[in-house]
Amino acid sequence: MDIFLQQIINGLTLGSVYAVVALGYTMVYGIIQLINFAHGEVVMIGAMVAFSVITALAGSGLPPLVILLIGVLAAIPVCMVVGYTMERVAYRPLRGAPRLAPLITAIGISIILQHVAMIIWSRNNLPFPQIIQVVPYHVTSTEDGATITNVQIAIITISVLMMAGLLFLVHRTKLGIAMRATSQNQMIAGLMGIDINRIIALTFVIGAGLGAVAGVMNGTYYGIAHYQMGFVLGLKAFPAAVLGGIGNLGGAMLGGVLLGLIEALGAGYVGDLTGGVFGSNYQDVFAFLVLIAVLVFRPEGLLGERVGDRA
């Protein structure tokens, strides 16, 4: 039971990060039906920028929480600029092109951003500064039982707050109404006075801001940053978005959490179930097994795919 509870806690933490990254995928897809495969690299850039800022301020005498907050506040605008630039330079000229063209472009941007990060931060694994002291809390009465740390609590809490804030933005504000109108039909939304280009650009900007926070959370949790860290994270967040229903905000959240739980439980029990043939190092396989299963048995996702009319 202790192992099960521990894997549930680990899965919720991991799933919270997946959910935040998946929101970036599903927001863009919901507006312009584009799979932005470069979103994982935006997450990576957020982690790298925060790494540089936190490393520079580590000996400044500021409280650790303040240093981490400054790192996050520095990463968010940088990622927003990257997200806006991607939309303005690479995606907007291809908006009326066949879907394959922007998809290939997204892959190309992903490779470019990886190599830019490699040039700036090197190809080595970078130890993400662990300036926040990790404090474990026992969930069970036994001393060697399941524990949850203050970092895990913070990741889950921040993820839930960001998800709630995004839902409020989309469903309770004028900007959200404009975003939903644009996702339904761009031509009619434009005739109603909505600036389509502005709304699409803001969608990329908001998704990139969420990605920056996800990158810092991932770096803080695992204690490592690398120029390719966003590639696998993005590839696994995409099945999370598909699992819940691509284009569906609630589905992205549900899919991310479920995928995190599936990975954690699979990593914890796959060795016993296979007699030691497979170990926890195969946990990345589960994300793609889930993607295959969803595409075969329920391609619209658990909560359904939301796709508007393209104009």
> Uncertain regions: pLDDT < 50 for 5+ in a row?
none
Shape: globular
How large is the share of residues in beta strands?
under 5%
List the helices and strands in order: HHHHEEEHHHHEHHH
| Average pLDDT, all residues | 88
Q: What would you call the structural class?
A: mainly alpha
Measured between the Cα atoms of the first and last residue, the distance is 53 Å
Spatial order of the strands in the main sheet? 1-4
The number of helical runs is 11
Rounded to the nearest angstrom, the radius of gyration is 20 Å
**Number of DSSP E strands:** 4
Largest sheet: 2 strands, antiparallel
Helix content: over 70%
Describe the protein's architecture and organization.
- With 311 residues, the protein is mainly alpha-helical.
- 72% of the residues lie in helices and 3% in strands.
- It is built from 11 helices and 4 strands; from the N terminus they run ααααβββααααβααα.
- The chain has helices spanning 2-32, 39-57, 64-91, 100-121, 150-172, 174-184, 186-191, 196-222, 229-244, 249-273, 283-297, and strands at residues 126-127, 136-138, 147-149, 224-225.
- 44% of the residues are buried.
Chart the SSEs and their pairings.
Elements: H1 2-32, H2 39-57, H3 64-91, H4 100-121, E1 126-127, E2 136-138, E3 147-149, H5 150-172, H6 174-184, H7 186-191, H8 196-222, E4 224-225, H9 229-244, H10 249-273, H11 283-297
Antiparallel strand pairs: 1-4, 2-3
Helix pairs in contact: 1-5, 1-8, 1-9, 1-10, 2-3, 2-4, 2-8, 2-9, 3-8, 5-6, 5-8, 6-8, 9-10, 9-11, 10-11
